[in-house]
């Protein structure tokens, strides 16, 4: 069996499953956030009763992250709905924006967008926060009310996105009926060359198979190229399975995985036992392709979808109005370090916005020093407008006062993961997806630029 | 008598993602709050680019659409997992979408909520139908008849009883998977 089949077999109490089987699986973790949490809670109460209790308090993780730093009153209210539910149910894993358990969240627009407006428990973008807070354990089954929940597959989990109704069902029962997907294998060989990042690998592959090329399927990543990647890289790749229509993305867990996971579990005091699954010698795939990642070059997904692939070096004629670095895939510490490597000592030519995925990223950028300067200062000195308010921000547009949102039609290059029309705001805008390196080089040049022009 | 629905069709192309079905700024509305559910209907398909789709799906002062059937190409509903997407369409009065293919989560959310029937067509229908055409959907024979021609649709199979029950919860109760409502 493939990794996904083994995980689903175990979670449904069967010795074996085959693609196409419909199985009831026991859920280890349910993740929700401020956009879909209130609706999920509504479904749960409507169906199980106003006084119903959730199936297992320790298995629910609630991370407000989408529409946080906005004066939109419904958005602020939605965070309060989450808090009320957490208090009523006594849930231990709620990463609230504010510290007062009885308080109300209200964003104070008069203090501006840049300075921190959250309390000590806030965690930032859910998919990046989840592993950082010790909630991704190899071998588990994780559902989340967000399509990029598949990011957790980087840690050897089965992880996928669901809607409010399914999530409401899980809240009451701890189970979900799902269809076992066929598995596509992507076997990576070689090492990425300077200037190439995990984002280039996944954009290349999506361009190859098409942005519905993995619909209903699992994308399993193997080979020396996959083993050589650090956890941040694997997260970027697993995250974007959904941009090819995939049900989940998955990497086999190895020592790097265990080291990362164990450290985070210890730091946050979450459940520490887990049982990973290993690769079987006999696996059957519906698709099996080998990629030599040493051959890949900086890659861009052009407007209007993540499968519309081109090479950065061929797009020099596209001039840009804005650059953006942030999101679950593009707002990690390693992403900002790559970005800073390019813009250090130079000045961006176009409006450039930076949104760290989590508060830890903010701290790490402020504490990492290159010569006398923090990386944070290197970025702001280069003209990047950095906010401390870690969140999804303009990755998905959001309310009109969202930091970095494209409120008028423009060309934007972005280190995020989705570029359908209107994704970052104005539906007349064109969004180009690329790696942090490519976004940085393009911000300096004001047009789409191959970052190797700036790397020594 | 056969179960049928007759109404006007609204035709869209390939790859209509959930940001076009219900743009992110309206996701602050919570679908289980009745007034907000109604309001979601007024924003259904409002994210379609105006140059390609000059006709409003829902008139500016309304929460309901005159188009009960949406005809689409490949990969309808791709993108985010927001259940607001089938809900906005259902709230606006859409009975069925007939697409060449679907993104996984949209299809699943349509079934789980019971908001609309996500049919797959055999032929590519956006090339032969146009917005405003009258059509009759026959749920028992899985066909769509429009402009004097009948088109075969793929049977809904195992998900049909779930939609007919009114979604996942009703289905789970009817089949004894969870206890009946007190
Ligand atoms: S950062 Fe973007 S892609 Fe990631 S969870 Fe937030 S909105 Fe979704």
Give a verbal description of the structure.
The complex is a heterodimer of chains A (456) and B (182). In chain A, helix 11 packs parallel to helix 14 (436-445). With 456 residues, chain A is α/β, with parallel strands linked by helices. In chain A, the strands form 6 sheets. In chain A, strands 17-14-13-18-19 form a 5-stranded parallel sheet. Chain A starts with a helix and ends in an 11-residue tail after the last helix. In chain A, 30% of the residues lie in helices and 17% in strands. Chain B is an alpha/beta fold and 182 residues long. Chain B has one domain: Alpha-Beta Barrel (Aconitase, domain 4). Helix content of chain B is 25%, strand content 20%. Chain B has 6 helices and 7 strands. Chain B is globular. The N and C termini of chain B lie far apart (34 Å). Chains A and B meet through helix 2, helix 3 and helix 5 of A and helix 4 and helix 6 of B. The site of iron/sulfur cluster has 13 residues of chain A, from helix 4 and helix 10. Iron/sulfur cluster is lined by residues 66, 125-127, 146, 148, 327-328, 392, 395-396, 416-417 of chain A.
Let me know the average pLDDT of chain B: 95
Largest interchain contact: A-B, 53 and 41 residues
Structural class of chain A: alpha/beta
Task: Find the count of extended strands of chain A (DSSP E, 2+ residues).
Answer: 19
Count of helix runs of chain A? 14
Q: Which percent bin holds the helix content of chain A?
A: 25-40%
Biggest sheet of chain B: strands side by side, in what order? 1-2-3-4-7-6-5
Spatial order of the strands forming the largest sheet of chain A: 17-14-13-18-19
Contiguous low-pLDDT stretches of chain A (5 residues minimum) are none
Superfamily (CATH H level) name of chain B:
Aconitase, domain 4
């Amino acid at each position: 069996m493939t990794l996904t089949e083994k995980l689903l077999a175990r979670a449904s109490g069967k010795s074996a499953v085959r693609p196409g089987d419909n199985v009831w699986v026991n859920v280890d973790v349910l993740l929700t956030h401020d956009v879909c949490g209130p609706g999920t809670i509504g479904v749960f109460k409507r169906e199980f009763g106003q006084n119903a209790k959730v199936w297992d308090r320790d298995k629910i993780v609630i991370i407000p992250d989408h529409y946080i730093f906005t004066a939109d009153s419904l958005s602020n209210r939605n965070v309060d709905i989450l808090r009320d539910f957490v208090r009523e149910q006594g849930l231990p894993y709620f990463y609230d924006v504010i510290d007062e358990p009885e308080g109300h969240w209200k964003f104070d627009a008069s203090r501006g967008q840049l300075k921190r407006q959250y309390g000590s428990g806030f965690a930032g973008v859910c998919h990046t926060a989840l592993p950082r807070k010790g909630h991704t354990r190899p071998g588990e089954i994780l559902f989340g009310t967000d399509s990029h929940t598949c990011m957790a597959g980087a840690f050897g989990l089965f992880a996928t996105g669901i809607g409010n109704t399914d999530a409401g069902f899980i809240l009451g029962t701890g189970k979900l009926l799902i269809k076992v997907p066929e598995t596509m294998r992507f076997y990576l060989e070689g090492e990425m060359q300077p200037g190439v990042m995990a984002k280039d690998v996944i954009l290349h592959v999506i361009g190859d198979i098409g942005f519905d090329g993995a619909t209903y399927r699992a994308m399993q990543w193997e080979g020396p190229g996959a083993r050589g990647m650090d956890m941040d890289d694997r997260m970027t790749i697993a995250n974007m399975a959904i941009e090819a229509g995939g049900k989940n993305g998955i990497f086999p867990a190895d020592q790097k995985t265990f080291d990362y996971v164990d450290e985070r579990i210890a730091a946050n005091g979450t459940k520490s036992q887990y049982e990973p699954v290993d690769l079987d010698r006999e696996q059957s795939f519906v698709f099996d392709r080998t990629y030599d990642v040493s051959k890949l070059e900086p890659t861009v997904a052009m407007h209007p979808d993540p499968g519309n692939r081109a090479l950065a070096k061929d797009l020099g004629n596209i001039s840009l109005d804005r650059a953006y670095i942030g999101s679950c895939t593009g707002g990690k510490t390693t992403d900002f370090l790559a970005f800073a490597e390019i813009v250090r000592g130079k000045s961006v030519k176009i409006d450039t916005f930076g949104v760290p995925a989590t508060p830890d990223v903010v701290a790490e950028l402020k504490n990492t020093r290159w010569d006398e300067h923090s990386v944070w200062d290197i970025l702001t000195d280069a003209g990047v407008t950095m906010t401390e308010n870690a969140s999804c921000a303009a990755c998905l547009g959001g309310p009109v006062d969202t930091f970095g949102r494209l409120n008028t039609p423009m060309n934007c290059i972005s280190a995020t993961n989705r570029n359908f029309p209107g994704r970052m705001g104005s539906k007349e805008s064109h969004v180009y997806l690329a790696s942090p390196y490519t976004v940085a080089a393009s911000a300096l040049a004001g047009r789409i630029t191959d970052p190797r022009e700036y790397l020594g | 008598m056969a179960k049928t629905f007759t109404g006007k069709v609204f035709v869209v192309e390939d790859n209509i993602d959930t940001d076009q079905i219900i743009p992110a700024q309206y996701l602050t509305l919570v679908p289980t709050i009745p007034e907000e559910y109604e309001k979601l209907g007024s924003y259904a398909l409002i994210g379609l680019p105006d140059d390609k789709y000059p006709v409003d799906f829902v008139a500016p002062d309304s929460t309901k659409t005159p188009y009960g059937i949406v005809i689409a190409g490949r990969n309808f509903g791709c993108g985010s997992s927001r259940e607001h997407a089938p809900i906005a369409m259902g709230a606006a009065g859409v009975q069925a979408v007939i697409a060449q293919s679907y993104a996984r989560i949209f299809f699943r959310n349509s079934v789980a909520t019971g908001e609309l029937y996500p049919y797959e067509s055999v032929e590519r229908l956006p090339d032969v139908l146009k917005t405003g055409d009258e059509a009759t959907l026959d749920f028992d024979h899985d066909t769509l008849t429009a402009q004097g021609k009948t088109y075969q649709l793929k049977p809904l199979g195992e998900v049909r009883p779930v939609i007919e029950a009114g979604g996942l919860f009703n289905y789970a109760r009817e089949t004894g998977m969870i206890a009946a409502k007190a």
